[in-house]
Amino acid sequence: MAGDRASSVIEGSVAIESARMGNTLRAVAYHAVPQSSMSSFSRQLDYFAKHYVPLDAEGFTQFLAQGSCQSFGMLENNGHYSANTTISNWQDRARHRPGLIISFDDGLIEQYEVAAPLLEARGMRGWFFVPSALLDLEQEFQQDFCALHDISLRRKEARKEKTQHSLVSNRIAMGLNEIKDLARRGHVIGCHTAHHVRMRPTLDTAILFDEIVEAKKELEMRLGYPVNAFAWVGGEPDTYRADALQMLCEAGFSWIFTTQSSLFRVGGDTRAIHRTVLEPDLPFPLFLAKINGLSDLMHCGRRKASLNAMRL
Ligand SMILES: [Zn+2]
How far is the centre of ligand 1, averaged over its atoms, from the C-alpha of 152 (Å)? Predict the structure, then answer.
């Protein structure tokens, strides 16, 4: 009898924990996705597909409105997710899993050529945060742009792969065609400033305007629809500013992402959605540790400092 009671208490606790997790969301951020990382990145995506409910823009909107992942645009189909399938017990299972936003910063071509197909093979969609000034840049200037604006590349590795396979092109950045194609395929396009600028306290307000308001306008003009998601550049606590946040909000960005790692809970502030930074070729145990609390713990101090800098 005592054993029955104990097990029912445990089951009850699990049920409570599961219900709670259904009201949370983990946002993650990747940068370079070299072809050599396909195998380990695929393993990470398989894990996400099994344990989380991946959200696109519509799914995130519903998550915010309904307070859980019970209903959204990407429904499960044969172990993966598909936009057009309805499964009767899906909602029950989804209720017990946290949501997931999987994002990619910096507008790199390998995100289009390597990452997007791997996501789509699992019915998942990504959130791609692009520096708007990189979209039109000729190939010959892209390397210098990245060096000048601190966009980290793993091109040596990619070039080596190019001789063996042909998936990764010689270009560094996605162009407008790729961005539009991603959007057409259901991925989310967000803004990552115009020139990949860290908004340090010394940065002139006029530059803030160009990097926020003008970058948004430019991206929207090119895409032909409103862009309301933004990701800060850098991640150091002194790259977040209260006046920049105010400008972001006034410009119409309603979903603003940091890299200060924390679960997002229903009712949380969408002006500071913290993402966990991951690499696609992380050793799997380290990947698990990071998304299950290690990064949240490691970023505790930085997160507080960044929120203070934004006066949130
Ligand atoms: Zn970046």
Answer: 8
Structural contact between residues 182 and 116, judged by C-beta atoms closer than 8 angstroms? yes
Residue 171 backbone phi and psi in degrees, to 5:
-70, 155
- The pLDDT tens digits of the residues spanning 51-77 come to 999 999 999 999 998 876 654 545 444
Rounded to the nearest whole angstrom, what is the distance from the C-alpha of residue 75 to the centroid of ligand 1? 30
Chain segment 94-136, per-residue pLDDT in tens: 557 899 999 999 999 999 999 999 999 999 999 999 999 999 8
Angle between helices 242-251 and 300-310 in degrees, nearest 10: 70
Look up residue 283 and give its two tokens.
């050793």
Q: Is 289 exposed, middle or buried (0-12, 13-18, 19+ CB in 10 A)?
A: middle
Give 48's contacts (C-beta < 8 A, 6+ positions apart): 54, 100, 102, 124
Parallel/antiparallel/unpaired status of strands 53-54 and 75-77: unpaired
Q: How far is the CA of 36 from the centre of ligand 1 (A)?
A: 21
Q: Residue 109's closest CA among 3, 195, 34?
A: 34
CATH architecture of the domain with residue range 25-310: Alpha-Beta Barrel (3.20)
From the CA of 71, how far away is ligand 1's center (Å)? Answer: 31
Is residue 23 within 8 Å of residue 67, measured between CB atoms?
Answer: yes
95's CB contacts (< 8 A; 6+ apart) are 18, 19, 22, 68, 69, 70
Residues with Cβ–ion distance below 5 A, ligand 1: 105-106, 233
Q: Give me the residue spans of the domains in the chain.
A: 25-310
